[in-house]
Write a structure and sequence with these properties.
Number of helices: 13
CATH topology of the largest domain: Rossmann fold
Distance between the termini: 12 Å
Strand order of the largest sheet: 3-2-1-4-5-6-7
Number of domains: 2
Helix content: 25-40%
Number of strands: 13
Shape: globular
CATH class of the largest domain: Alpha Beta
CATH architecture of the largest domain: 3-Layer(aba) Sandwich
Length: 379
């Protein structure tokens, strides 16, 4: 099948989860035999080699809010390409892919990884209501209504009128061939001594990196020598660095190319995802992320340490693939890390995590599910 994939606000290649997701889906569908053309913002140094036809189509001035102005260009590409399916990565000010697909009679699939609905009292909701007719809500609901299929990690973030029959609930995944136990390439940092706890991701308040620093400090006070490696960038990085002042064997690498992440994770002993849902008001809707870091930790054979919230508990079974802690307990995260100082416990949980990633959380499985849904829906 010829597929047009509109993800024009995502940078490829890039270092954030959205970039990884778009690359994995485009390449995974191409490996299944589809002819994939992907519209994205170009990153550096160049587009990935391989079977995907990457087209540079960034929103004006790099502003996602102006993505809608590319609708005419996307429509022209769709008319020239004549794809059997159009996939669009959802954004508030999008809709260009779904409209172009409907105009040419293609199957339309909307990828929804962020809430379509507003949480109660959100600034966007207040602005929309001030405009009387709520044009932003109506536009988002129209995009969903016009899509033949919607793929999302959580149906709770969709408009309530969305027919369940067109929703494919699907988690993100990991490249289980590249993310595997054992060294695969040079590690781009000097591994600190002892048991290494790794945080990889965006430095934003709700990603909770500061809680890992505090847990390491608390363990040092107990005489437990857990080291830390923090990979990524973001607005909270200065605060996290400041929290780590005076702690030895804590490494900050900054943002790294995703190609280096398999080696980075293989150099660690524990994968930590210390999400703080209280620090991000949209999460009042529910924990709607499909957390890339967790799947890549598991695929690498790392035991996962994360808060015991329902969405994460569905991905990581406490005491089987990792340890889940009560985020309301200040000692919850340090206690979980201390249990994993025992190499036998780490090995048992990490082996189980790897097996589950292979079974349920690979990009290959994700793309096969997309492929089957598109084929079922195609006239």
């Amino acid at each position: 099948m010829r597929i047009l994939y509109s993800a024009i606000d995502q940078i490829v290649p890039g270092t954030v989860g959205g970039s990884v997701h778009v690359t994995a889906v485009a390449e995974g569908l191409a490996r299944l035999g589809h002819e994939v053309t992907a519209l994205v913002t170009p990153g550096t140094p160049r587009f990935p080699d391989g079977p995907v036809h990457w087209v540079a189509l960034p929103p004006p001035f790099g502003k996602k809010e102006l993505r809608w102005t590319r609708a005419g260009r996307v429509a022209r590409i769709a008319r020239e390409l004549k794809p059997g399916a159009v996939i669009e990565r959802y954004y508030n000010f999008g809709g260009e892919g779904i409209r172009a697909g409907r105009a040419i009679g293609a199957v339309t699939m909307l990828e929804v990884n962020a809430p379509v609905i507003d949480y109660a009292g959100s600034p966007k909701q207040r602005l929309d209501r001030a405009l009387i007719l709520e044009p932003m809500r109506r536009w988002r609901e129209r995009i969903c209504a016009q899509s033949d299929l919607i793929v999302t990690p959580s149906a709770d973030i969709l408009p309530s009128a969305t027919p369940p029959g067109k929703v494919l609930v699907l988690e993100w995944g990991a490249d289980t061939d590249r993310f595997a136990p054992g060294p695969s390439a040079a590690v781009p940092f000097r591994r600190p001594p002892g048991v290494v706890a790794l945080f990889a991701g965006a430095f934003r308040r709700w990603h909770g990196a500061v809680h890992l620093v505090r847990a390491i400090r608390r363990l040092r006070e107990r005489g437990v020598g857990v080291s830390g490696v923090f990979i990524g960038d973001g607005p909270e990085l200065p605060a996290v660095r400041n929290e780590a002042a005076g702690l030895d064997n804590v490494v900050f690498t900054g943002a790294l190319p995703h190609d280096t992440m398999p080696a980075c994770m293989a150099a660690a002993d524990i994968g930590v995802a210390p999400f703080d849902v209280s620090a991000h008001r949209p999460l009042a809707i529910g924990f709607y992320w499909s957390p890339l870091k967790i799947f890549e930790y598991m695929s690498t054979g790392l035991p996962v340490v994360a808060p015991a919230i329902p969405r994460i508990a569905a991905l990581v079974e406490d005491g089987r693939e990792g340890l889940l802690y009560d985020p309301s307990r200040p000692e919850g995260l340090p206690d979980a890390l201390e249990r994993l100082v025992d190499v036998n416990v780490r090995r048992q949980l990490g082996d189980a995590a790897r097996r589950r990633a292979l079974r349920e959380f690979s990009w290959k499985a994700h793309c096969e599910a997309l492929d089957q849904a598109l084929r079922r829906t195609r006239p």
